[in-house]
Amino acid sequence: MRKVVGIGETILDIVFRGGQPSVAVPGGSVLNGIVSLGRMGVNVNFISETGNDRVGNTILQFMRENHVPTEHVNVFPDGKSPVSLAFLNEQNDAEYIFYKDYPKQRLDVIYPVLQEDDIVMVGSYYALNPVLRDKILELLDQAREKKAIIYYDPNFRSSHKDEAMKLAPTIIENLEYADIVRGSAEDFFYMYGMRDADRIYKDKIKFYCPRFICTAGSDSISLRSNTVSKEYPVEPLEAVSTIGAGDNFNAG
């Protein structure tokens, strides 16, 4: 039976509306997608880490409640579980501030065994972080060897835009591993200063990975490959919040 394996951070998102905290929910880009799949009964695994504290326990309990196994989550005794503050504006778009205190030894876990046609989801700064690079490559190499499908979502935040040039070689390496790349126009603007899907695909993606999906909020979804170039309109809706919107798109 095919399974979906994600690797990424776990974090507690504290959401602010009108300058006041309104809710605290476990999150993390890849985790959000894995949780959506777990709720649908898909066979999932998630590789991550969290602290041995109340925040970490909340995250682990949330995973179990949503049918996401926790045996591949490293619970570290030192450091603290990460927390983010998400400030929603009038359009319910979020601006983030992150607080992290990780130990020196990271991601000390045994990976799930991959099979052919399993799906491996990677993304965000977690897939670029030099401290974790060997761990990420270990999973990507296993996925390539076993002929699993690698799905890469850069999820590149504005907080890292000044590092885009320095991170470019690692981004390219991830693109080379990927079978499918899905990102938002906002991600690519912070990475490359581009928003146009055609230009992004032809100049930055196609040489490394032939399959590309670009989302743009309420605007159309762009699909590009060696044989397909299509736009899919997005039906208008009133969003309660855009937090995790792209992550849930990945789950679909």
TrEMBL record:
Record-annotated membrane-spanning stretches: none
Matching Pfam families: PfkB
Gene3D superfamilies: 3.40.1190.20
Keyword Kinase assigned: yes
Family, as annotated: Belongs to the carbohydrate kinase PfkB family.
Molecular function (Gene Ontology), one example: ATP binding
Organism of provenance: Bacteroides pyogenes JCM 6292
Keywords, in A-Z order: ATP-binding, Kinase, Nucleotide-binding, Transferase
Domain Carbohydrate kinase PfkB: 23-252
Protein name from the UniProt record: Fructokinase
InterPro entries the UniProt entry points to: PfkB_Carbo_kinase (IPR050306), PfkB_dom (IPR011611), Ribokinase-like (IPR029056)
